[in-house]
Amino acid sequence: MAVTIHQLRKWKEKGRPISVLTAWDYAFASLLDQAGIDVLLVGDSLAMVALGYPTTLSLSLEEMLYHAQAVTRGVNHALVVCDLPFLSYQESPQQALRSAGTLLQQAGIAAVKVEGGYPDMVNTVHYLVERGIPVMGHVGLTPQSVHQFSGYRRQGTSDPEADRILQEAIALETAGAFAIVLEHIPHPLASKISQTLKIPTIGIGAGAGCDGQVLVTADLLGLSEWQPPFAKVYSNLQDSITGAVQQFCDDVRNHQFPQ
Fold this sequence. Notes:
Layout: H1 5-14, E1 18-22, H2 26-35, E2 39-42, H3 46-49, H4 61-73, E3 79-83, H5 93-107, E4 111-113, H6 119-130, E5 135-140, H7 159-175, E6 179-183, H8 187-196, E7 201-204, E8 212-215, H9 217-220, H10 237-253
């Protein structure tokens, strides 16, 4: 049975944690889906993981659409959510509607994710939801604002910052967001937000008090050159793949393959 937005809400009510991972192509999406992941996020982290950009800011809507189409082809169970790339939704609610509509129509995703909880973004979320497009919010460390934050620093460490993030989360829920990602904020703050909201919170570097957890799949599998401090490496595929390729090269050069 396919995961639905309604089911995520029910899981929060029952205290059943939600598992979320990122995907950027058919092969990984299919494997993650078969393994039983609840939500697949076609995250703009693919800019760095799959395309080699230094940040998420260079990713275009066309590139995101291409990867979202590949991901949805591999999914039968998980709920597929897609990031709206930088500058594809910040200009106006109407621009956000066009971008989100393109992804829903042409890639078959279930929902989009936007970053930020400032008033204009809250209005955009309301505008999209009113027109039938499910929206996941994202507060705390928002990677598309990396230059404004002067890097990937933890957010919400002062009382004014913490209160702002809490109020942003509440505003996004009021606007109609069905879930909110809480990234790299103090654990007590994330727990407070999770207890305040009726919609699920998905934490990344925000502690165990959230209703679910998300990781970048490349981090989980040990494929990233750099790991954020809150990531957990469950496998070291980088070494496994490198070793397998080196063995293949040696076998070919030594006339051991094919036999």
